[in-house]
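ugh ok fine here u go
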Amino acid sequence: MVGKTVTTAVACAISALAVNSALAEDVAKIGLVLPLTGGLAPVGKQVQAGVQLYSQQHGTNVAGKKIEVIVKDDASVPDNSKRLAQELIVNEKVAVIGSALTPSAMAIGPLSTQAKTANVVMVSGTSRVINPNNPYMVRTSFTLGQQSGIIGEWAAKNGSKKVVIVQSDWAPGAEATAVFTDTFTKNGGQVLDTIKVPLANPDFSPFLQRARDLNPDTLFVFVPAGQAGTFAKQFAERGLDKAGIKLIGPGDIVDDNDLPGMGDSMLGVVTAGIYSVALDTKVNKDYVAAFEKANPMRPNFISLGGYDGMHLIYEALKKTGGKTEGNALVDAMKGMQWESPRGPISIDPDTREIVQNIYITRIEKVKGELYAIPFKTFQAVKDPSKMKK
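structure:
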């Protein structure tokens, strides 16, 4: 009897292990490392909202897999990003990891490469994040070069001659500045000075005063989404709008999440960006309506990194028949193209970079609220730093 009981117990244990193994094989985990607290928390919340909306609209079963999303808060600290990503890869055995801000993406990239885990970059706009040393990284956000090159050319051809640059002092700011400077000067413009502002808890006032004293006709600005509202307030307080200084920049400075709280000093500001809630397409109108129904905020360009990131993951799983090996997923992602709320997008098979429209927009007031209204479109723009010469 004792022997029979032991045999039965072992059989049950083996059966339970088999069931658990089968269940594990039927689950595809997606791990997201986002800043959900701290000064850049609005960034992480937009990504998370985009991810959640896509899952709500398209379900959680793909190619025979149950999709499980695990979100970790790194509070914008790269050391946290690395530790949390390692936990997701080793302990949770995620099929895909989602990276956010540039420092986070740079910390996670080598880990995903070592583990051969697909890594979707949903926020970072720094070109060098995606490189041959990190072959498992694919971008669904943007690069600052895509936007800054377009606005540099447009500004030089539309009356801007002398520019002062104000940039946040981190890798994306440096990249935005470099590309803008190169394009603007090649088209006949002059950069009077480049002023760097601390990333953490910035007070823009003294830097704006310094910029005004140089008497430019235009101010090119890059600050991260989430700081645009503070910048706009101090831009007006320093009277730069009344001094006749035009304000231009990448789309980050007219973030849709911040625009409702900005003042009329932003009217007329021209930027080059990847998205505006004012895009007049059915796909976008449906997206904005669904997003605002689910969240107490407008969707911004960052939300699309999460929304389109999930689309890329879902479709890659379909193409692999549910296989979650990193090489198979990344190969499936290369060359993929679809219609996003931001317009037609694709993944360049050679660079794993997103190819997308860039919109020149002007801030206007519509029904009492500020919107970035597109008035010129540059189609299928690639990352300029990776374009074949």
